[in-house]
Amino acid sequence: MTQLLKRRTFLKGIGTTMALPLLEIMQPHSSLVSAAAATAGKAPVRTAFIFFPNGVIGPSWMPKTTGSGYELPKSLRPLESLKSDINVISGLAQINGRALGDGAGDHARSAGVYLTSSHPTKTSGADIKAGISVDQVAAQQVGHQTRLPSLELGLVRGRNAGQCDSGYSCAYSSNISWRTPSTPTAKEIVPKLAFERLFGGGAEREKQRARHMKDRQSILDLVKHDADQLKKQLGKSDKRKIDEYFSSVREIEQRIERSTQHEKIKPPEMQLPAGIPSDLEEHIHLMYDLLVLAFQTDTTRIATFMVGNAGSNRTYPMVGVNSGHHELSHHRNDEKKMADIQKIDEYLTSQFAYFLNRLQSTPEGNSNLLDNSMICYGSALGDGNRHTHHDLPIILAGKGGGTIKTGYHHQLPSETPLSNLFVSMLDRAGAPVQSFGDSTGRLTVIDS
Question: If you classify domain 12-17+42-197+265-429 with CATH, what class do you get?
C-alpha cells in the first residue's frame, strides 16, 4: 500500500532545503484513514496584504451598484475574468489615519495605519510607535507551522530614520508590517535575496550553496537526488505537478539571473540598485511570482507586499504618465491629472490581476491556490487629493479555503472600520482574536 507523505515534506541537498507543493500522495483518502485525519489534510489558508500609495480616483474605482450583478468600473476592468473570485468592499475606513490633532502627514499615516489600525505617534526620532500589524498577529499564532513565520516584500526600500512626511518618521512611510508597536518588519526588495530567503537558510549552508551556485548549479540541481527518489513514489498526476513546480522555480531562477546580468550593463549614471530589475513590470512580476512560490510550497502562510512606499512619486511612462504619482494625487480636480492617476490605478490593478491569475492557475488538491487564499489589496487613503481615510479602495480576493463568498460588491455603512475585515481574516487564518485595533465586530457579509 502506498505510504502517505507528510504535508511538510522537504527535498534536501547540499546547502539547501526545498519545500514541496501539496501533492495527492500527501492527502488522505477516506478508504485509508479516518474522517478526522482527512480534515487534517485540508490545504492551509494563505493570507496576504498588498498596499499601494496615494489613494485612487473614486468614480473610476468604486462600482455604481451592489450585489453580484455589479459592473467593474474602469480602474478595475483588468479583474474582469476574476470577478467571481473577488469582493469589492466599499465604505471601509481607517479613522486612525486622520490627523486627530497631529496636523499634516496623511501619507505617512496611511502606511503606518494600514495594517495596524492604530494612530502613529508623530515623531521623526527613535520613539516611533504604531501598533502590531494584523499580519504579525497572525504570524505570532500560526507562523510556527511554516519555515518562515511571514514574508515581507516591497519594491523600494525606504528609510527607517529621519522624517519623510511633515514630521513623521520615514519608518511609517516605508513599512506596513510591524512586529511590535515600535518595531517595523523590514521588507525585502531584491528578488534574488527574497528567493534565497525562501529556499536558503543558515550561514554555513549559505556558504555551501554559494559555492555551488558559483559552479552554476541551480537549487533544483542540489536537490536532484532527493527529487529522483521521491518521483519513484508518485503517481502520474503528482509527477506532473512536481515537474510543473520545478519548471516554475527554474524559470524564476533564470529570470532573476537574467535581470541582474542585464542591470550590470546599464550605464552607471542610471544609479540602479544592484540586483533590482530595471524594468518595473519585471520587478513586480518577480515579487508576485515569489509570493506564489512561498504559498505553493507552504514556506509561509502570511505575507505583505508594498507596491510603493507612502507618498511614492514614481512615474509610469509605460501607460503614458511621466509626472510623479504623489504630485499628481494633489490634482485639485484638474481633469488631465485625474486621468493620469486613473491610468496608474488601472495599471496597478492589472499587475494585481497578474498575481491572482498565477494563484488561480496553480492547482492544489481539488482546487487552486487562489481558492485557498485571502488577499487584501488596497490603500489607507481614499481620495489622495483630499487626504481622506474613509471610502477606502479595498478588494478581498480568494475564497479563504471555502469560507468566503466571492463575486460581490459590498457597500458597507460609512466609516466601517477596516479592522473589522482584519478580525474576520484572522479567524480564517487560524489566529482568532476578540478584537483588533479599532474594530467594532466582524465583517459577516463575506461569510459563505
Answer: alpha beta
